[in-house]
Prior knowledge:
Bound molecules: pyridoxal-5'-phosphate
Low-confidence stretches: none
Mean pLDDT: 97
Number of helices: 14
Number of strands: 12
CATH architecture of the largest domain: 3-Layer(aba) Sandwich
Order of helices and strands: HHHHEHEHEHEHEEEHHHEHEHEEEH
Shape: globular
Amino acid sequence: MARERTQGRGFATRAIHAGEHPDPVTHAHNTPIYATATFAFDTAAEKEDAVDRAMDGDPTAYFYSRTGNPTTRALEEKLASLDGAEDAIVAASGMACVSSTLLAHLGSGDHVVVGDELFIITRILLEDDFPRRGIGVTPVDMTDLAAVEAAINPQTKMLFFETATNPRLRVADIDRLAELGHRHGLIVVADNTFLAPALLRPIEHGADLVVHAATKWISGHGDAVSGAVTGPATLLKPIRKQVDTLGQAASPFASWLVLRGVRSLPLRSRAASANAIRLAQFLEGQDKVEWVRYPGLPSHPDHDVASRLIDGPGGAMLSFRMHGGIAAMTAFTDNLALCDVGVSLGDVFTLVYPQPKRDGLVRVSVGCEDVADLIEDFTRGLSFVS
Length: 386
Ligand SMILES: Cc1ncc(COP(=O)(O)O)c(C=O)c1O
């Protein structure tokens, strides 16, 4: 019913309605939190049927919440709809989805070509864990198609990259990467955490699987840790099994929070992106700022690709560096009066992430506050930079 109700509807309508329908027993309008470990049956045969169907990959055959849960399933249906995917899996965190996607499709003797700028925990997984599993990894600049092609060898099974990298916000041409990957028979996987489906839908550009840290923009309120993978059922089936065998099930409480948050994703993405370009332009005009990286600025090396791929001005993440490096970074961040310093991103509030190990780079996840207040706070921070 939910699918029929939202079939062919616009993105904002699907963000609100897809996957959700009044509870068939109580008629509760809002999707309930199914806080249950197990599901009960009248007969042994019904139990056996549910277990068999669930173990065969049917996400709606509930018998135990590590394997499947209706609250989490509602979120899966919503995210599949938003990404234009056949189906989705929601798991405990973005890293649960990154690791299960890689491990379900790569084994000893296989090789994966990955972006040369990846979320640090993904990098640690690839660098520390994959060698002892016998999986080869080659990091490469995904904006350099010739380098990507040169890195592919007969053992290569997958291309894995982030759609806007952390922290330099490089944006590779997904259409061309997907064409290249498919020419070599590879599975093309995009981690779309930094943009989320309101701003970019990698499947529309040829990617096979999309991974999200739903903890970030999809949830949007900094109150849940969650992850998702979207794509075709055939590629998701082994990932669902891997999520189950590694025990990476989503908590129904977290899924419910994300379900609530994602309904406003289109509104939040629009407001945060509008703020981000204003803040990026403001920073680029400041003498104390050495450089700004924002895909919506003409000065960004991938501006043309980003303008084609990303809806709106260029996302809501930006990075900048001040003259004076780490000392300037500290003077700036430690004197902000409104924006907090933190490592996460994608929330309604602006978060500033200083990176002393990257020579004083400051990454900003721009929120939905009044932009005048953000500019005033950044002006204040900069006034403490000598
Ligand atoms: C690009 C990217 N992928 C994956 C993750 C992992 O998500 P989680 O923290 O939910 O495990 C993050 C977290 O910051 C991220 O930035």
